[in-house]
């Protein structure tokens, strides 16, 4: 499970120059790949 604290914008819509969703997506892809390899 992952919680993105910063998605690139604050509550008012201003850019924060940080987006944790990219990093979460990379880690999720690694996890899914691992599950697919080990669930045979």
What layout of secondary structure does this protein have?
Layout: E1 7-9, E2 15-19, H1 20-38
Antiparallel strand pairs: 1-2
Task: Describe the 3D structure.
With 40 residues, the protein is an alpha+beta fold. The protein has 1 helix and 2 strands, in the order E-E-H. It has one helix spanning 20-38, and strands at residues 7-9, 15-19. Strands 1-2 form a two-stranded antiparallel sheet. The two termini are 23 Å apart.
Which keywords apply here?
alpha+beta, single chain, 20% strand, two-stranded antiparallel ribbon, 40 residues, 1 helix
State the end-to-end CA separation.
23 Å
N to C succession of SSEs: EEH
Query: How much helicity do the residues have?
Result: 40-55%
Strand content: 15-25%
The whole-number mean of residue pLDDT values reads 94
Order the strands across the largest sheet as they lie in space.
Answer: 1-2
**How many distinct beta strands?**
2
Can you describe this structure in just a few lines?
The two termini are 23 Å apart. Helix content is 48%, strand content 20%.
């Amino acid at each position: 499970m992952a919680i993105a604290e910063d998605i690139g914008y604050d509550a008012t819509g201003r850019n924060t120059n940080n987006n944790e969703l990219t990093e979460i997506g990379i880690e999720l892809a690694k996890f899914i790949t691992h599950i697919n390899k080990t669930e045979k």
